[in-house]
Amino acid sequence: MAGIKEACGVFGIYDLDGGNVVPSIYYGLTSLQHRGQESCGLAVSRTDGERGNVQFHKDLGLVSEVLREDTIRNMEGDLGIGHVRYSTTGASVAENAQPLVLSYIKGTLALAHNGNLINTPELKWELIQNGAIFHTTTDSEVIAFHVARERVHSKTVEEAVLKTARKLKGGYALVIMSPRKLIGVRDPLGLKPLCLGKRDNTYVLASESCALTSVGAEFIRDIEPGEMITISRNGIESNKELSTGKHAHCVFEYIYFARLDSMMDGVKIYDARIRGGKSLAKSYPVEADLVTGVPESGIPAAKGYSEESGIPFGFAFYKNSYIGRTFIKPTQKERESSVHLKLSVLDSAVKGKRIVLVDDSIVRGTTIANLIRMLKKAGALEVHVRISSPPFLHPCYFGTDVPSNDQLIASNHSAQEICEMIGADSLGYMQSDYLEGMAGHLPLCKACFDGKYPMDVEAELNKKIELRMLKIIEITYLQTKKIRYSKSHILRAYLTKASEAIEGIVPLSASDAFCLRYKMEEEIDNGSKIRFCYRWCCIRPW
Length: 542
Prior knowledge:
Elements lengths: L8 E7 L6 H10 L7 E7 L8 E7 L2 H4 L2 H4 L6 E7 L14 E5 L2 E11 L2 H9 L10 H14 L4 H9 L4 E8 L4 E5 L8 E5 L2 E5 L2 H6 L3 E5 L5 E5 L2 E5 L9 E2 H7 L5 E2 L2 E2 H15 L6 E4 L5 H11 L7 E3 L12 H11 E3 L1 H4 L3 E6 L6 H12 L4 E6 L21 H4 L2 H8 L3 E4 L5 H4 L5 E2 L1 H4 L6 H27 L4 H13 L9 H14 L3 H13 L3
Parallel strand pairs: 14-23, 17-20, 20-21, 21-22
Antiparallel strand pairs: 1-4, 1-10, 2-3, 2-4, 5-6, 6-7, 7-8, 8-12, 9-10, 9-11, 12-13, 15-16, 18-19
Helix pairs in contact: 4-5, 4-18, 5-6, 9-10, 11-13, 18-19, 18-20, 18-21, 19-20
């Protein structure tokens, strides 16, 4: 699949017998590599040692590249957490790699986060006004800072985590390491997954059950939506104060994100994707000679389609496993080039045949179009495309990096138009009514398909815009006061810098820049605001 970035992956482990957990973190993160190939890291400590003595290492790259033997050989601890990342918020830079490690008056705190908040600007602005200095552009750091601040006025770290979690709006799975405790928290809707496992006297928290298997741990259960679990020398404690009873599991975990051998909220991922393929065959039958899937995301659904339709399943592509996923490439041209490096057609398997090609989604349409051309060039008579998800029509705000609406081909074109654009002989999407059945009848978040978000996203987005515009105005006012009546390109340069300092803001046009300057010079003339603005600029330098 091209265009959709996955959620991150988190891992936490506590060996109550005092054994070194570093190797287990390495293997756990490796098994979660499919959830994030951008950066990774780990943090460990010894619970019988000096409080606050945390060792950590993180950087851009795959687990095998970042956590090299020579790097982690001297790292040791019986308590630790790890993280693999894709950037759904914050830039793709080493500073944004996790886990985040904070030293504060109460000791040391380490945090790893999967998901995305919709009220980050509000939470961040609250901290900035109290003098916080941020080193990353992630919402994860905002969460960590709030936990640290609440801890100063709380009896326990669990109390601080709960106070913070009550402020969070969005999807999240957190693993938090204090000097003597491992804490896991799952958002009240259950948008992001988290599970618990056990190996001898060692407890493990992970985004997926496949990570438990990789370290020899037995799956115990999923962490429930709205549940906080604490692992310490006293055993396991559960707190469900955050639970609301309303659930909305991310549908894309079952369509694409999760690894085939994982089980999530009682649903086996492989079985879910087989059911999805069978539903496609019922909805969009066709006469064909071969059913194949786009490696690797479309293979299980293709098998389901084959089983239901009776059309033989086979492989039509060879995948070069040493080429990264296509959406990692920064430009469309590079993205298209990498498709040819990654996949090649097995000519003898497709020549003279009518092909059913199954994939999990169509985002921009470029990747599937390339694959269809490759199949027909190899001699395929017909290519009928079947997609195991409904059309992408709306953005996701909870940790799935769906492109903007203007990049979503289905938001501007009908299925028939898309079929013609990609060069397919027919096109069929999964019907929304079948999604619950595919995912074991769990309550799902399907907002990227139907626009029905499980929380009031619009209200938070309005707050976000207001806060961000306020910051731009304040920052730019300071700069324009320095340069006065400069030329438009100079002013625009300052506005661009201001906008880039605020994650998610697109630089303003030159005409907008002049309007904003005049508005500021007419309406904003407050010395205290200027001084505060200058402080904010200093802690977020460009």
